[in-house]
């Protein structure tokens, strides 16, 4: 029995080392000079702590604080929109009854199979007609319209696991449908909401394609687009400062996941076992 436990933990430790190696590689490169970057050793013989200060002010006219603010602004509003819209749509599919409900839910699930590249051109034409290209609106407004079927499905599955007896008891006490939603059902979906918020934040924070297409002004650039500015074909690439800023860019996602890990695991686990 002890040998089996030891073997299991050994496998898990080795697997964790494989998973954490890219982070260690990023940390090592963020402390290297340009000359040490191609060398195979993980960490340099001499740490270049100046990479962080140089990278923070490497973009002419802007500090990286500006790009972090832009990313936080877009990600925060996107998370808020996703939570509100997905919760309302999910409650409607899970608790209410309306004509062609199963058909509409099936169509919603079918959109999960559509790659983002398929809808990219129609969306761009639509936002272009709204004169939104060059602003942050295409990156924020759609999230208030429940455009992520994955989050709707996740919350639907969670709500279906909440006993309907609670709804019936609330009705007997004179609670309306809206009251049942906001006082009974949705407050019990905290783990699913936190899971949705984590995924939404990370996906929005890491989104490069959408931000590259719709943001044309450097002043509105986010962190992923700012990192791209280091790759200047007209001059030498400052690899160390770029890796330093890339390391800083993953810290918000890491902190959010670490703080909300308990609810994240609970939300995924409980959603996965409920049909």
Automatic annotation (TrEMBL):
This is Carbohydrate ABC transporter permease. One of its GO terms (biological process) is transmembrane transport. One of its GO terms (cellular component) is plasma membrane. It is a multi-pass membrane protein. Gene3D superfamilies: MetI-like. Residues 68-260 form the ABC transmembrane type-1 domain. It holds the Pfam family BPD_transp_1. It is found in: Cell membrane. The chain crosses the membrane at residues 7-27, 67-91, 103-127, 139-159, 180-205, 242-260. SUPFAM superfamilies: MetI-like. It comes from the Bacteria. Keywords: Cell membrane, Membrane, Transmembrane, Transmembrane helix, Transport. PROSITE patterns: ABC_TM1. PANTHER family: ABC TRANSPORTER PERMEASE PROTEIN MG189-RELATED-RELATED, ABC TRANSPORTER PERMEASE PROTEIN YESQ-RELATED. Belongs to the binding-protein-dependent transport system permease family.
